[in-house]
Amino acid sequence: MSQQLAYVIITPYSLYKSRTGGILSRLISRTGLDLVDLRMFAPSIDLVREYAQTIVSAHDTQDRKIQEMLREYVLQQLSPDPKTGLRRRVMMLLFRGDEAVRKVRSVVGNLSPDRRGGETIRDTYSDLILDEDGSVRYFEPAVLAAPNASESETKLKLWARFSEKDGGILENVITYNPGERPERTLVLIKPDNFRFATGRPGNVIDFFSRTGLFIVGAKVLRMSTAQAMEFYGPVREFLRTKLKDGVSAKAKDLLEKEFGFSISPENQKALGDILGPIQGDSQFDNIVRFMSGHAPGEIPQSEWTLPGTEKCIALVYEGMNAVSKIRDVLGPTDPSKAPPGSIRREFGSTIMVNAAHASDSPESAQREFGIVKPGENHFRQVIEESYGKI
């Protein structure tokens, strides 16, 4: 069966209420589809109007009145705020796989004032409250998704056309008090969260939502070997120096046991000077392999810049004291030393396989943005790979 692309739009209200992680968890774990990209949008009025025109469809099993409500919702809630003029944030998720549109729509669910269960995303996160006369008192759909493959293609092509102008790392979408100086920081949801189709990536994002910060950039990242080498480059020399004492002590014990002679402190230090850098380089290669799929020596240098085989999610968070707030929720590098309730204590297993990365300073964040390029328009590329040039 042919592979389909399906989308889910997380609405401004769902983003504001930090429901992103819960929504993503259900979509990954219950569809089993491949998450191929995420992109933040701040829709212009032109995009909103064109998208609204596609909402009502004779091929949608959702009640016609509900479709009309969705069209009005899009026009009102996705358009720039009429009071402040600020554009509103939405997140677009792209999934690929067999029957992707049907699977996504079944997890998203339909809207009804008489829902009884909590199985679908809309069962849990949407609201449709009617007055006694049947008029709508409150309506929030939580997410938006296409009813069939044909309409998914039409709408994805539309969003792709606007993806450069209205998408990427969003600017001027959050209101701050006079004098406040917000920061931006990078988070990587690491490959260990994507070994199987589970809710872990969304669960990790849920932990970060405790910070009260705002997601202003997002993409699926398959880090190349070259990117991983540059990204973790500052760690390399640290490892070459840090590991000297440990490797020299282990080498001393092994040599004395094997050959039956004693090794002086001076010779032990010399062993550390020789073996420490070798051990450090080996550990560095392990990190590069974990993040990209290949250590430098395992593939030709001509392939170092190609997308890797491992998947991450790159997120840009914005807000006051963003770097320290994210680092506090993440916890220290070693999960065994992380406090209860931190991400690395809950989801990490080793110093390397520790669930997520976060920038340790605003300066590091800027350096890492330049390597990871979280605003890069991979979204349009994915859509054009499926449907041709737009």
Descriptive overview:
The chain is an alpha+beta fold. Among the domains are: 3-168 and 375-387, Nucleoside diphosphate kinase-like domain (Alpha-Beta Plaits, 2-Layer Sandwich); 229-303, no CATH class. Helices cover 44% and strands 16% of the residues. It contains 16 helices and 10 strands. The chain has helices spanning 12-16, 20-31, 45-52, 64-77, 100-108, 121-125, 149-161, 200-208, 225-231, 233-242, 244-259, 265-292, 322-330, 343-347, 362-372, 378-387, and strands spanning 3-10, 34-41, 90-98, 127-130, 136-140, 143-145, 183-189, 214-221, 312-319, 356-358. The strands form 3 sheets. It has a 4-stranded antiparallel beta sheet with strand order 2-3-1-6, sandwiched between helices. The chain is elongated. The two termini are 24 Å apart.
Task: State the low-pLDDT regions, or none.
Answer: none
CATH topology of the domain at 3-168 and 375-387: Alpha-Beta Plaits
Strand residue percentage: 15-25%
CATH superfamily of the domain at 3-168 and 375-387: Nucleoside diphosphate kinase-like domain
Q: Strand sequence of the main sheet, in spatial order?
A: 2-3-1-6
Number of strands: 10
Q: Oligomer, anyone?
A: single chain
Averaged pLDDT, please? 94
**Which structural category do the helix and sheet elements fall into?**
alpha+beta
Shape: elongated
Outline:
By secondary structure, the protein is of the alpha+beta class.
